[in-house]
Amino acid sequence: MRYLLDTNVVSEPMRPKPAPGILRGLCEHDGDIVIPAPVWHELRFGCARLAPSRRREALEHYIEDVVRANYPVLGYDQDAADWHALERARLAAVGCTPPFVDGQIAAIAVVNDLTLVTANVQDFDQFLQLKMQSWA
Question: What is the pTM of this model?
Answer without folding.
Answer: 0.95
